[in-house]
Every structure is written in structure tokens, then in C-alpha cells.
Amino acid sequence: MTDFFGIPLPALFGQLVLGLVNGCFYAVLSLGLAVIFGMLNIINFAHGALYMVGAMLAWMILEYLGLGYWWSLLLAPLAVGLVGIAIERLLLRRLYQLDHLYGLLLTFGLALMIEGLFRDLYGVAGLPYAIPDELSGAIGLGFMFLPKYRAWVIFASLAVCLGTWYLIEKTRLGAYLRAATENPKLTQAFGINVPLLVMLTYGFGVGLAGLAGVLAAPTSQVGALMGSNLIITVFAVVVIGGMGSILGSVLTGLGLGLVEGLTKVVYPEASATVVFIIMAGVLMVRPAGLFGREK
Amino acid sequence: MDFTVRRGECISLLGRNGAGRSTTLRAVMGLTGRRSGSIMLNGREVVGMAPHRIAQLGVGYCPEERGIYASLSCEENLQLPPQVGSGGLSLDEIYDMFPNLKERRNSQGTRLSGGEQQMLALARVLRTGARLLLLDEISEGLAPVIVQKLGEVIRQLKQRDYTIVLVEQNFRFAAPLADRMFVVEHGQIAAEIAQHELEQKLGYLQDMLGV
């Protein structure tokens, strides 16, 4: 068996793929956070909770409606997006005149309430969600076996990130979004319905979190705390990448997932902290993040 | 403050810095937050309306700080405002009017020179079909040749029957263009001067504006 500095290659590649899968979740989640922060100037602490809601909805859709994975992939993000729209309309909208801190506190409170609700309903033990038949099994690549579902998560996440990038950077709607992010008042004075854009942006951003939740459901057990475990790392990713940069958050997410995977092979003891060590280093050299612009 | 602008007319709000001229335009656009009083547009009350609804009634606003977006290219800046009426200039007509903008169309909006940015800010509202143009200090800080160019454009727009409100500090720029001039002081209209009264009231104007 070939190996790399004493590490068997299949194990190395296995961890790298797992790292990439985690990186995909970081990327999709931090992408949503970046889009929301750019437009609403709100650090959305409810993001992890809404990711969990996406996963729980996938489980509930199967359990109560008998609809499978592919339906969940469509319905759960939509439902989470609608919840987001309601949150924006009823709560966040009242905070735009106030300091950022209020948005942070409100979304943090919401996260606690949403998690508490699901904890109350379903407990903290994880619920199983099976990999759909079409995606179970693995592909032999010669040097390793690639589980089909992991390949699918990587493919789907990258497609979502690329689609979002295209939407924002290359379309007319995206030009409205960029303009409204930069100068909301003037953009509205040109006849663009900025409050509506803001509402849809929040819905879209948390919809992405819901989508990530559905993608994650078959990779681990579904439970009320799955979001809060992940979101701390995602915030570190956002800090490293720099707030407000779309491409930056995607690349940082993927890169840090890989680094984490690699650390698991080389020095497993540090795998849970390596992201935060990198964060500290980046903050010392580039306080605005790798892709952020200093204001 | 109470004044009327007739359709197809070009008026100018003159006055010193801080007299309240820009605020007047911002209030018309609904950008000043809570407003009281009455602003009628083609017989419709707009004082309670959101800015985007007011713009959709056919109002084009060119802010004093120009408001060119750094995150958009020159052409994206130009294409940004949605149509709010029929009969706006086409992109080709705009590029004929401002050839510089065609050359720089792929540049980042804020990389343009001050004069180009001002042309862009003006051109941007001409594309939308807005018939009422609120132009805030468009001649400010620009080279004489560009100011002259902008004056020509305004003259063309008058011929096309646009309704124009010019907020100006540059009396020499506004005087030949405006059908009527309002002198604004402390948030009030201190005097109204028609084009034909200009000569006899020149002394008064220079006094008021400190030119």
C-alpha cells in the first residue's frame, strides 16, 4: 500500500473528501451570512438554527408526509426561506435604524428559541435520516472509494455557490442587489423597491442555510443542536474570509474544510481548533479578513 | 417653502450653502424621512409615498454627491435605474451625447474622472424616461469645458420638453438656462425672478448669493 509520510493514501484521501464535504457546508452557510450581512448589515446568528430547521424539516417531511429526499431538497429550503421572510418583515425591519448589536441580539435570541422549540419537541438525541437509494453506495476511483452521497454534496454545494455568484455578479437583479448594498437610499430613489429586495435577500440567505441543512441530514444524525455545533466554526470562516465577499466566503469555506480534514490525518488533536488558530493568525495580519476590504 | 414648476419648464433654486436647496430635492424624492406639508406631482399627492413609488411616477434624481456605484461598471451604472416612463434615451443616443462614457463603459464606476462621473449621473436618469429631472449641483467642481457641455445637454433637454429643477450655486451656469429662478434662504423662498427680469435684478441676486 502506498503512503504519504506514513499515512496510507486511502485514509488521506478519505479525510480530504470528508473535509471538502464539511467545507461545502461552511461555504454555503457563510455565503448566506455574507449575502445577508452585505444587504441588511445584520450578523445573522439565527443561521445555524435555520440550518437545523432545514434538516429537521427534511426528517419531518419524510416522517409525516412520506415524501423523500428530493422533495425535501425543494420544499425545506422554501419553507425556511418563508420563515426568514416572516422574520424580516415582522422583526428585523424594525431594527435597521438602530445599532448592529440589536440585530445580532435579536437573531441570537431567535436561535435560542428555535433550538429550544425543537429540543422540546424532539429531544436532543439525533434522529436518523437515510441516504436516498439513488445516492447510496460508492464509486471506486482506484486509489480510494468515493461515497456517492459525498460526491453529490460537493457537486450540489458548488453548483449552488456558483449559481449565487452568477446571480449577484452577472444579472440585472444582482446589479440591483449590489447597488442597494452600496447605497440603499439612492437606489430606492431610482424606483427600485429596496425594502422588497432586502426581504427577499434575507429569505434567500436563510433558504441557503435550509438547503445546507437538507444536504447535511443524511451525512449525520438530525437533531436540535446540529446547528449550534457548526455555526461557531462558520463564523470563524466568515471572519477569516472577510465579511461581505461572496467568492471569498466560498473559497475560504472550502479551503478551511480541507485544512481541517488534513489536520485530522496529520495531528487529530488539533482538528477542532485549527480553524480558530488560523483565524487568530489572519486577524493579526489582515484584520478585515483574507478577501475583505478595510473600511 | 412653496413653489410650483410647470410642465416643460426649467427652474433653478439658487442660494448659499445650507440654505435648504438640496434638502428640498431630497424631500421631493422622499429621502428625508418624515415629511409634512404637501408635494403634488401631476396632481397626485406624494408626501406619504416611498421613494421608489415617487421615482416610478417619472422623476429622475441626480444627487449632489453623484452617487456613482463603485460596485458597478460604468455601463451597469447607466443601466441600473429601471424604466419609469416611455421615451427615455436609448443607450446609443446617450453614448452619442457623451462619447466619453462609451469609451469608459467597462471601467468601474468610481474610476471615472469627476466630469465623467457627473455625465454618468446625468445620463443615468435620461435613460429611464423620467420627465421631471431633479438635478443637484451638477456643475459643481467641474472644468469649464465640461460645465459648458452640461449646459448644452440641458438646453437639448429643454427642447425635448423635459421639466427640470436645477439646484445651483453657480449662478452663471443656471441663469441662461432657467425660465425662473428662486432664491432660497433659511429654508424659504426669498425671491422669485423670471428670465426677463434678470438684468434689472442682477445686483440683488449678486448680493444674495455673494458672488
Brief characterization of the structure:
Chain A is mainly alpha-helical and 295 residues long.
How many helical stretches of chain B?
9
Query: How would you sum up the global shape of chain B?
Result: globular
Please give the largest β-sheet of chain B. 6 strands, mixed
Oligomeric state as shown: heterodimer
- Radius of gyration of CA atoms of chain B, rounded to a whole number: 17 Å
What's the CATH H-level homologous superfamily of the domain at 10-67 and 131-209 in chain B?
Answer: P-loop containing nucleotide triphosphate hydrolases
Poorly predicted sequence stretches spanning 5 or more consecutive residues of chain A: none
- Strand order within the widest sheet of chain A? 1-2
Order of helices and strands of chain A: EEHHHHEEHHHHHHH
The total beta strand count of chain A reads 4
Percent strand of chain B equals 15-25%
Mean pLDDT of chain A: 89
**In which range does the helix fraction of chain A lie?**
over 70%
CATH topology of the domain at 10-67 and 131-209 in chain B: Rossmann fold
Placed side by side, the strands forming the largest sheet of chain B appear as 4-5-6-1-7-8
Give the topology, please:
The complex is a heterodimer of chains A (295) and B (211).
Chain A: E1 3-4, E2 7-8, H1 9-40, H2 47-65, H3 69-90, H4 100-122, E3 138-140, E4 145-147, H5 148-170, H6 172-182, H7 184-189, H8 194-216, H9 226-241, H10 246-266, H11 274-285
Antiparallel strand pairs in A: 1-2, 3-4
Helix pairs in contact in A: 1-5, 1-8, 1-9, 1-10, 2-3, 2-4, 2-8, 2-9, 3-8, 5-6, 9-10, 9-11
Chain B: E1 10-15, H1 21-29, E2 40-41, E3 44-45, H2 51-56, E4 59-62, H3 74-79, H4 91-97, H5 99-103, H6 114-126, E5 132-136, H7 144-159, E6 163-168, H8 171-174, E7 180-185, E8 188-194, H9 202-209
Parallel strand pairs in B: 1-6, 1-7, 4-5, 5-6
Antiparallel strand pairs in B: 2-3, 7-8
